Amino acid sequence: MALAGGVGGAKLAQGLYRTLPPDSLTVLVNTADDFTLHGLRICPDLDTVLYTLAGLANRETGWGITADTFSTLEMLKRYGAAGTWFQLGDRDFATHIQRTQALAAGRPLSAVEAELAAALGVRARLLPMTDAPVATQVQTAAGLLDFQEYFVQRHHSDPVHGLTFAGIAAAAPAPGLAARLAEADAVVFCPSNPLVSIGPILAVPGLRDLLAAAPGPRVGVSPIVGGQAIRGPAAEMLATLGHEASAFGVAQLYAGLLDGLVIDEADAALAARIAGLGMQVRVAQTVMQDENDRETLARVVLAFCAELRGQAA
Fold first, then answer.
1. What is the C-alpha separation between 199 and 291, in angstroms, rounded?
2. Domain 27-129 maps to which CATH number in 1.10.357.10, 2.60.40.10, 1.10.1530.10, 1.10.8.240?
3. How far from chain centre, in Å, is Cα 141?
């Protein structure tokens, strides 16, 4: 099983999907970025993982669909519609329309995502972290911002002073998750933002306990390389929220939950400090420039998991 959110998580998920028997992979995806716009329910992280595994993702941006057109968005702009700052392509709109109609008919999000994945030929199981609505809210000097307002509309330029996951107390792990974790050979924390991508997943009531009880090793990949995020505001968020903006800072957030952490060659000097937190460390090339890099890193992670399983046997 892989935990993922955003482009970095989707990249490693694709590497795992191409390395493992595809039916054997479950990807547990952050849904705290989800929101409603133009009357449609949009699930950015789920869609990014879905399009990536389906081979449809825009290679330049990592999100959206390659060669998509934006005629619908342009017409909405002509009408003066609100929310046109969020880029939605024409084929992307079709996903949100289909999802919104299914949800309105009473289908749970987990079932809807399974249907969307099957329609696009994705054999891995995509699970939202919960079927309940959860929304990340960002505390800034400008006030409390909805995540997409902070991240997309304001280009994540505001220093982050706090995070709230609205609705999390009423959330429950997605149906079937407990059974899949109980039989998982390993659990991989993809190189996603530990605060707003993996953080909401871990905040779902009962989910940490399920992860702790999983029989296989739990291995993470640091999204911070040389003190910087490959993309996005993870390093800045870590710093303003009082964490060290480094692979060690990521390890501190996951201490007690991970058995091992993969860090980049640029951070090899941090290995001893991270090991002091009670997890083993593997140093590797973690920056994924292309699909070959994704598969190479997936093989490193899987070999690390196998090694940890052997030690536990």
1. 26
2. 1.10.8.240
3. 26
CA dist 108 and 121 (Å) reads: 20
249 contacts 243 by C-beta, under 8 angstroms: yes
Spatial CB neighbours of 264, under 8 Å, sequence gap ≥ 6: 222, 225, 226, 247, 283, 284, 285, 286, 287
Q: Determine if the pTM surpasses 0.90.
A: yes
Instruction: Report, in angstroms and rounded to the nearest whole number, the Rg of the chain calculated over CA atoms.
Output: 19
pLDDT at 235 over 60: yes
Cβ proximity of 27 and 124 under 8 Å: yes
pLDDT higher than 70, residue 41: yes
Q: Give residue 261's identity as a one-letter amino acid code.
A: L
Dist CA 135 CA 78 (whole Å) = 30
Percent helix / strand / coil, the chain, rounded to 5: 45, 20, 40
Tokens 């490693």 found at: 12
Which has the closest alpha carbon to 235: 197, 193, 283? 193
Is the CATH code 3.10.180.10 the one for domain 172-312? no
- Name every residue whose Cβ is closer than 8 Å to that of residue 300 and which is 6 or more positions away in sequence: 262, 282, 284
Pairing of β 260-264 and β 280-284: parallel
pLDDT tens-place string over residues 147-157: 999 999 999 99
